[in-house]
Amino acid sequence: MLLDEPLGALDALTRHELQLQLLRLCEQQKRTFIMVTHDVDEALLLSDRILVMGSGPNAEIIHDITVPFGRPRDAETVEQDAKYHELRSFLLGSLTSH
Known about the structure:
Blueprint: E1 2-4, H1 12-29, E2 34-36, H2 40-46, E3 49-53, E4 61-66, H3 75-80, H4 82-96
Parallel strand pairs: 1-2
Antiparallel strand pairs: 3-4
């Protein structure tokens, strides 16, 4: 399933609820989801792999990151992991430097 910024225009509470629904759906359906997002926290919670694109019309993949958190996963457990904070800082840094 391809999702292009599906949660971008939602308020924080609705967004969080739908993120949890996507996690459950992913577990139940055992299907591949490809999701475009500009939200680093969302990417770290929902993804198994993150591809960071450069900017501009000829954008290329500048980072290919395997997310180290097992499944099933939940936001609280992920956000308490030291690796989460390390990856979050790296991703935010890479986005602001390009």
